[in-house]
Design goal:
Number of strands: 7
Distance between the termini: 23 Å
Radius of gyration: 15 Å
Structural class: alpha+beta
Number of helices: 4
Order of helices and strands: EEEHEHHEEEH
Shape: globular
Number of domains: 2
């Protein structure tokens, strides 16, 4: 089920994917409640799981956004203790490296420059201007999750 809200509000959605190997993956999203956790949206027996996106996966998502002609406003990077890295220098250089050389090269640059660092989220501005942030466990913050699902569909073969 997909939920949309008033465009003037920001909400958090959880994406889940039906991972049936014989069919194309089916992406859904649900509005998260205050007490929800990402795994609340899984049904492993039915092959419905949340995406678990590592650094390279999120960089593929960002590269896919560039490929769609969308803007990547921010790539969130944390240090080895998963604390946000201060400043914009590393995320800005990472974004430029990604745009020039692709996801794998950008990750190699990050691991050389900042050992132990990890990409934790990607903030994208699609053509319609409705910005969203996609996190490692398939959480989406924004006024809708539809663009995030569209982007995940387009890069899913690269992240799985």
């Amino acid at each position: 089920m997909s939920t949309s809200r008033n465009p003037d509000t920001t909400a958090t959605y959880q994406i889940a994917v039906s991972n049936n190997r014989r069919k194309k993956p089916r992406f859904t999203s649900e509005l998260m409640g205050a007490d929800s956790t990402p795994t609340d949206f899984e049904d492993v027996e039915s092959d419905v799981v949340i995406p678990r996106l590592g650094s390279l996966d999120l960089l593929h998502v960002a590269a896919g956004a560039f490929g769609e002609g969308w803007s990547v406003r921010r790539i969130g990077v944390s240090d080895g203790a998963m604390l946000p890295m201060e400043g914009d220098v590393i995320p800005d250089r990472l974004r430029r490296n990604l745009g020039r050389h692709g996801a794998s090269s950008a990750l190699l640059w990050l691991t050389d420059e900042c050992p132990g660092a990890a990409v934790v989220d990607v903030t994208v501005i699609p053509a319609n201007g409705r910005e969203f942030t996609l996190t490692r466990l398939g959480g989406v913050t924004g006024d809708t999750s539809q663009e995030a699902i569209q982007l995940l569909r387009s890069v899913w073969s690269q992240v799985r």
